[in-house]
Amino acid sequence: MPLFDFPLEQLREYRPERDEPADFDDFWKRTLTEAEAFDLAAEFTPYDSALTSVEVYDATFAGWRGHRINGWFLLPRGASEPVPCVVHFIGYNGGRGFPHEHVVWPAAGYAVFVVETRGQGGGATWAPGTTADPDGGDYAQTPGMMTRGIMDPETYYYRRVFADAARAVDVAASHPAVDASRIVVEGASQGGGIAQAVAALRPSVSAALIDVPFLTHFRRAVEITDRDPYQELVRFLSSQRHAEERVFRTLSYFDGVNFAARGTVPALYSVALMDMTCPPSTVFAAYNHWAGPKEITVWPWNDHEGGGGAQREEQLRYLRRLWASHD
Prior knowledge:
The protein has 327 residues and is an alpha/beta fold. It has a single domain, classed as Rossmann fold (3-Layer(aba) Sandwich), CATH 3.40.50. Helix content is 34%, strand content 19%. It has eleven helices and nine strands. A nine-stranded mixed β-sheet has the order 1-2-3-5-4-6-7-8-9, sandwiched between helices. Helix 10 links the parallel strand 8 (267-272) and strand 9 (294-299). Helix 4 (157-174) crosses helix 5 (190-201). The longest helix is centred in the last third of the chain and has 19 residues, at 308-326. The protein is globular and about 55 Å long.
């Protein structure tokens, strides 16, 4: 896989103008207010995972319009006081998988809340999911989620997803075993894009770990990559030839660059310079707009897998430094 985007020196300076609707903040304030009209109704049911050092709970809560969102909630067994919590968001088409796949954070002494993305994971053998999306929009779409309800920001799929994710932070903060002052949002690809948005929507979180984020700088992404999921947008526009203005207006409410400009918490990003799924310039566009303290790890020779386990080590050390400085 060749280097195909701007040189690294140019990427570090790449800060494009934001395509931002005038009512961006009002739209999201109203969206969260509508979501908060429903009680969280969080439930944590003990689950026998055969893990001896971790407590596992089958978790569920009320997301957008009260729709039930599922996940796993894991705690280090025998913690004597409330612990930090990582709220983990999942990559495109994945579900929550199995509890044993999420033990790294409890091994480090943290709780982890693995939050499913509504409507995804039904066909993912690598990480099956269980959460439905009762709202589907009222317009034709390409296969996948990127164009579901895309003709209007009110009906766009990711409005529901981001509202669910913001509610998940509230669920984590409400759990008696969690130190609500030390909640982190985290994810890669789609999960990174969701974490990026939630860090802006819930500035009470203490940090954001954002790996190779999707859902960011849409216009450039669709122009320079031929990979899914961004190609879902291209296929839609190639069929709906007069929809471009409406589509990109909708996407402007969900663009990670606009959320990044509102992100004030400490953030650790990662980017892969050979990533043709979430091109490096789209990641740097958001990172360079991030308004709070920030660091970025660059993986020069990787595609969308990014840093993998090496990046997880970076994150573990980052949080240890971050919280040590606050103690």
